[in-house]
Amino acid sequence: MSEEKSQAELLKESLSYEIKNAWEQSDDSQIRKAFDLCENYKVYLDKGKTEREFSTLVEKELIKAGYHNLQELFKQRKKLSKGDKVYYVNKKKSVAFAIIGQKPLTEGINMVGAHIDSPRIDIKQNPLYEDSGLVLLKTHYYGGIKKYQWVTIPFSLHGVVIKADGTSVEVCIGEDENDPVFTITDLLPHLAQNQMQKKATEVISGEGLNLLLGSRPYNDKKVKDKVKLNILKILNDKYGIVEEDFLSAELEAVPSFKAKDIGLDRSMIGAYGQDDRVCAFTCVKAMLDAKPSDKTALCILTDKEEIGSMGNTGAQSNFLKSFISKLLYLTSESYSDVLMNICLENSNMLSADVNSGVDPSYADVNDKMNASFLGNGVVVQKYTGSRGKYDASDANAEYMGMIRKLFNENKIIWHTAELGKVDQGGGGTIAQHVANLGVDVIDCGVPILSMHSPMEITSKIDVYMCYLAMKVFLESK
């Protein structure tokens, strides 16, 4: 027989706080569900490597689930009622969708949101050149990356080209098993004496991130730049484009490898773009599976977060307000800015974004008492920002208490964190931009290793807990 607990042991249990491991707190059934969910998640990662592709993927899922295009309904001035499902894709790069609840929107909306852009290598507008018998594309990296991580790996080329006649051509090269891939070269160690003396930020320059495209010349002695001509002919034969069409193109080089299980126990996922598609996926899945609530449920997936959320597809744009204004217009007898402001002030949001998980190889950058760990469930980040909480979204104690109560009552395994030690660094999310509208917002997402690298790592049980957290929040009254 086990000994009875002492008074001190009982007192410690009732008064102390300890972070729980989500694997240990989950039964076999929950773990199977986590693994099943992550098989679906890996499909999203492989098929939605860019913001355009992810938007298209989500739109197809929404239509299949019975959602209707809000723009079309608005043109018809068709009134919305409880249970109606609507969506809108903004500029093919961001998405908002909602399920109308019983209560009027002025009593608030339960929102979840994430961003669907990721660090990558963008192709410049005038990129194609030949040098030393090779053809390369000039690039401009997108988002905060360690440039040295993005060389000598296989890339695929994704995007859209708008031709002179206005027609568009979708480009995707490198994802099929039979496709060629591309790469960015690096200097061999035998000749890298000077390079190795440089700071890590300078080992690879931004202008040195040139994508290798080809080396075979066109068979004609009368023309110069024969390799470039051959590449242009291949592109023209396949896509009907000419060199000038690069001027009106959006082409992105992204790692070409597929999402893979990590570890002998297959407990983790390694893939490109998990910041922040892991949270975007769990938001989408939660919206599709959530039971109807008295409150309207809404999800927004934004672009441009990695470069400050600027532009008409980013979280600083008018996109969210425009979407909600149409919902208000189609669910109420009258519309006014006053009603819009009341709606926003009464609304709550989980800003779903990743946090840096503790890596034992680099543990000194974290305050372990206030850091996120893989396998400990979804992580809640009360405030963001850097060095004195500058540029932070800092949720109030009342809202933090509400989320704590909701998660505990629904047995969500969660813990709190901030991004690194004070003065070590920091970062931001879309939370601050939605908070500026008057909405109560807190960051909530998945711990991740190797953030902003070509292969980021997440724990499957954390992905599952994030999905459950989003779902119970959307269903809350």
Automatic annotation (TrEMBL):
Keywords: Aminopeptidase, Hydrolase, Metal-binding, Metalloprotease, Protease, Zinc. GO terms for biological process: proteolysis. Its EC number is 3.4.11.-. The keyword Iron-sulfur does not apply. It holds the Pfam family Peptidase_M18. Its cofactor is Zn(2+). InterPro entries: Peptidase_M18, Peptidase_M18_dom2. It comes from the Bacteria. SUPFAM superfamilies: Aminopeptidase/glucanase lid domain (SSF101821), Zn-dependent exopeptidases (SSF53187). GO terms for molecular function: aminopeptidase activity; metallopeptidase activity; zinc ion binding. GO terms for cellular component: cytoplasm. Belongs to the peptidase M18 family. PANTHER family: ASPARTYL AMINOPEPTIDASE, M18 FAMILY AMINOPEPTIDASE 1-RELATED. This is M18 family aminopeptidase.
